[in-house]
Design goal:
By secondary structure, the protein is of the alpha/beta class. The protein has a single domain (about 10-250), classed as 3-Layer(aba) Sandwich (Rossmann fold), CATH 3.40.50.300. About 35% of the residues lie in helices and about 25% in strands. The strands form 2 sheets. Strands 6-7-8-3-9-10 form a 6-stranded mixed sheet, sandwiched between helices. β7, α6 and β8 form a beta-alpha-beta unit. The model has no long low-confidence stretch (mean pLDDT about 95). The structure holds adenosine-5'-diphosphate and magnesium ion. The site of magnesium ion has 4 residues, from α1.
Length: about 290
């Protein structure tokens, strides 16, 4: 897989307005005047209440939806140019919430092959890419199995393998862990972290679980169709009350630290559970 040049924007959204037509003549505006840049090689987590426009944003990122106003570009290609769409969809792979809806093959390897067949990849190259993608998601032992027998987490890893096999620069995951059990969530989270860190794939993950945003380079909080907060996780989650006031949760350790500080315990800002444990131990030693 191609190592990317970190820092350069790979997806840009400029002054985006998007509405859904509810009935003829009646539109609901979901995004208005939105601007965003996703840097190549970055790991971005998007949080936000239901209905804040996250899925709409995700679909704009690979041309599944087109803006009514403004321009979306992927690697410099405008998503509204029909002849660029193929290249854009190959560059930005999508993984959705329901693993069952994403299975198309009768065996795991057939499932991974599906997108490649559509790309017209030659058989030998296809074999290599399937093996490589299954290895990347640690599912090579399941190549011949029927996908519907797998666990939710394994099915999502197969869906991700199907995307990786296309050699995308970006993977957008729209609540890909929402239907998984804790084990499945851990599998998918560690996989996407690894793909970002080791393969240089840009990751945009939309999630309801604040813990999944802890390792991101950047957290974007959406509220009513616009960007409400945007910054590193440490900065975003330090605004605990502000997040809670718009109905969003913060990671467990951040919430616990917030309660303790409110009760008069002196603690520096923290993000991870280990940091909280360390700070509490220091306090215990002092007393
Ligand atoms: N296909 C659609 N037709 C009409 N309205 C839609 C459609 N999809 C989403 N919406 C509306 O657009 C708003 C944003 O939805 P969405 O982008 O799915 O938000 P999120 O993913 O943050 O929950 C919501 O009010 C939702 O009801
Ligand atoms: Mg959604």
């Amino acid at each position: 897989m191609v190592k990317s040049v970190k820092g350069k924007p790979i997806i840009t959204l400029q002054d985006i307005t998007f509405s859904y037509e509810i009935e003829p003549g009646w539109n609901e505006t979901v995004l208005q005047g939105m601007n965003m840049e996703i840097e190549q090689g970055s790991f971005v987590a998007i949080l936000g209440h239901n209905g804040s426009g996250k899925s709409t944003l995700a679909k704009l990122m690979n041309g599944l939806l087109l803006p009514h106003d403004g321009v979306v570009t992927v690697n410099g290609n405008d998503t509204s140019e029909q002849e660029r769409l193929y290249e854009i969809r190959r560059t930005v792979g999508m993984v959705f919430q329901n693993p069952d809806n994403q299975i198309v093959g009768t065996s795991v390897e057939e499932d991974v092959a599906f997108g490649l067949e559509n790309l017209g990849v030659e058989p030998t190259e296809m074999r290599n890419r399937i093996d490589e993608a299954l290895r990347a998601v640690h599912m090579e032992a399941y190549a011949k199995q029927e996908p519907h027998r797998l666990s939710g987490g394994q099915k999502q890893r197969i869906a991700i393998a199907g995307v990786i096999a296309m050699r995308p620069s970006v993977i957008v995951l729209d609540e890909a862990t929402a239907m998984l059990d804790p084990q499945g969530r851990r599998e998918v989270c560690s996989l996407i972290k690894r793909l970002n860190r080791d393969e240089g794939i840009t990751v945009v993950t939309i999630t309801h679980f604040p813990e999944e945003a802890l390792d991101a380079d950047r957290v974007i909080v959406m509220q009513r169709g616009s960007v409400y907060l945007d910054g590193p996780p440490r900065e975003i989650f330090s605004r605990t009350e502000e997040l809670q006031s718009i109905g969003l949760d913060v990671p467990h350790a951040v919430r616990l630290r917030h309660h303790l500080v409110r009760d008069g315990v002196e603690l520096p800002p923290i993000l991870h559970q280990e940091e909280l444990v360390e700070e509490l131990c220091k306090l215990l030693l002092k007393t």
